[in-house]
């Protein structure tokens, strides 16, 4: 009841742990900011931007898939679809990571031309959680890229040998 080889099993567990860690870091990204001069308090969180919610959902999907695929028997016919699903999940991770990265860059630096100021100076804990989640999610992306290359090699190797 495991992946076809130990290397693939280890990479899938690494991908599962990385995406779970990213999802947890993102889900806990909240901070209250109090402005004493106007007596206003605001709360910033990951749910304020859809790209962070997308990153959270994609990381949860990839984590569940990584865990579930390790439970497949070695001789299951579902292993044939693993290459396609791994490729789709890798693309989802790449796109959600890039969207979240562009949003955190905007939140960190602001936009001078639009007159937006960065909020990371006001809410550093929030920004650190987001940056950590993106970094760990990128590790999951790299893991899935390696898995995809291994899957393609396993798929094409019998064709090249015979």
Automatic annotation (TrEMBL):
Keyword Membrane: yes
InterPro entries linked: CASP/CASPL, CASP_dom, CASPL
Localization, UniProt: Cell membrane
Keyword field contains Transmembrane helix: yes
Membrane topology: Multi-pass membrane protein
Superkingdom: Eukaryota
Bilayer-spanning residue ranges: 45-65, 130-150
Primary location recorded for the protein, binned into one broad class: membrane
Annotated ranges, domain Casparian strip membrane protein: 8-142
Identification of the protein by name: CASP-like protein
Source species: Quercus rubra (Northern red oak)
